Amino acid sequence: MHLSSYFDRQRTEDFIMFSPSHWIALSIITLVCILFYSLRFEIRTDVRLRQSVRLLLIIILLFSETGLQIWYLSQGVWQSSSSLPLELCGITLLLSVIMLITRSRALYSFLYFAGIGGAFIALLTPNLVYPFPHFRFLLFFIAHGGIVLASLYMTWIEGYKPTWKSLLFTMLGLNIVAACVWIANYILGSNYMFLSHKPSTYSVLDYFGPYPYYLLVEELFAFIVFLLMYLVFFWVPEQRKSRRKRISRIPY
């Protein structure tokens, strides 16, 4: 097969969810996250290595969005109604770049939940039609994996942690973002963030009922996912650590 076919907008096959290539992509991202976690102390204590990892993540994220825009333009399919970075993951990708550059705690409070949570759902149920090894397939998983790693970097390397206020801040921020995107949709006649109708490909929204009720269910679903992300990875471990400290202080 000619190399250009991996970049061309025409395709002979469609992406199949939970196909071997999908599972392999998910497995690679999972393994990278595990490796990242296992090396967190080495990265954290080496200033040059920490800066290099942060710069690499910034480059990966910028390459992902720039590559996508170049692909749209090169294939003559760029449209304001579908090609702007106004999907949730497009927004969190750009915000992740700013967060990594500025080390903003406010952005981290939002992106730990909205970035990781949104990218995780997108990775499980991709709004994608191009199969492996097409450029769009590779770009999709690199971009969404990069969004996850950006917030994990701030957590594991920079030592940032979300709070209960972060959860409420994220829900408020998401609604503000959705309101702005809704206005953009009205002006552009678009469907960014699927605020006007569900995507044409399979997604978790298929279980949330018809329009506009799925938007309310989606918000409840997001809150539950974010709550579990906080409870499982922060609140429960901190409670266990606090309990062990209290027990260790009890005289025998």
UniProtKB/TrEMBL annotation:
Keywords: Membrane, Transmembrane, Transmembrane helix
InterPro entries hit by this protein: CHP02206_TP0381 (IPR011737)
Residues annotated as transmembrane: 20-41, 53-72, 84-102, 109-129, 135-155, 167-188, 213-236
Source species, domain of life: Bacteria
Keyword Membrane belongs to the record: yes
Entries under NCBIfam families matching the protein: intg_mem_TP0381
Protein name, entry field: TIGR02206 family membrane protein
Species of the source: Paenibacillus odorifer
Phylogenetic lineage: Bacteria, Bacillati, Bacillota, Bacilli, Bacillales
